């Protein structure tokens, strides 16, 4: 019997696969950081642009700084404190006594004078004593403007008591308070202050500092004297609105009695 010679079967190698990356690299979870960083950069640029276009309210900003400083036990000094001290020191040299009050807030410095410092009853011409006080104040404000390189806004308010005007040139408290405020503003003008930085306002008796009547319903003479006042506000240059005075209790007007 013939034997069949078997042929050798060629060896077949398995297909070669492309090399694979290490397991850690194949599951790299840090790729999202690139997109996240791009997004945060864009957001940062967006808010910087918004901030550059915003108009800051400096007085409100100062109030926030004061609140934060107090919350964390720190010290806070308003930018207007030094101006207040400077003006108060200058006015103390002319001896206005209890007829003057100087305060400061983020808007500026406020000086409250009893009307008798400047005016006679029903008068609108500044007295000699009042001129001396105003000259001292105007000089102090001028010096402060130069030292701080600022141009303050000066607001003068005239206030009367609640009793109606009887006789005289002015028919009501509106005209009287406005004329008094204008007389004070005129002295600032004469000393070279810019007219566009000066404002005269007559409030009449609409913003009393104290209730004009006693609990019994009679006039409180001390309160009436306090309500008859001249308020001068030295506002910071960036303040673009006039601070509105706080209202006190306005009581019913009594029968007409002339006294200012």
Task: Please outline what is shown here.
By secondary structure, the chain is α+β, with helices and mostly antiparallel strands. The chain has seven helices and five strands, in the order H-H-H-H-E-E-H-E-H-E-H-E. The radius of gyration is 38 Å and the shape is elongated.
Strand order of the largest sheet: 1-2-5-3-4
The percentage helix is 25-40%
List the secondary-structure elements in sequence, H or E: HHHHEEHEHEHE
**Average pLDDT:** 81
The CATH superfamily of the domain at 99-235 is OmpA-like domain
Question: Structural class, from helix and strand content?
Answer: alpha+beta
Beta-strand residue fraction: 5-15%
Rounded radius of gyration (Å): 38 Å
Low-confidence stretches: 247-260
Structure commentary:
It is a single chain. By secondary structure, the protein is α+β, with helices and mostly antiparallel strands. The chain has a domain at 99-235: OmpA-like domain (60s Ribosomal Protein L30, Chain: A, 2-Layer Sandwich). It is 38% helix and 13% strand. The chain has seven helices and five strands. It has helices at 23-26, 32-53, 58-71, 81-92, 128-148, 173-190, 221-227; strands at 100-105, 108-114, 153-159, 198-204, 229-235. Strands 1-2-5-3-4 form a five-stranded mixed sheet. Helix 6 (173-190) links the parallel strand 3 and strand 4. Helix 4 (81-92) runs antiparallel to helix 5. The N and C termini lie far apart (154 Å). Residues 247-260 have low confidence and may be disordered.
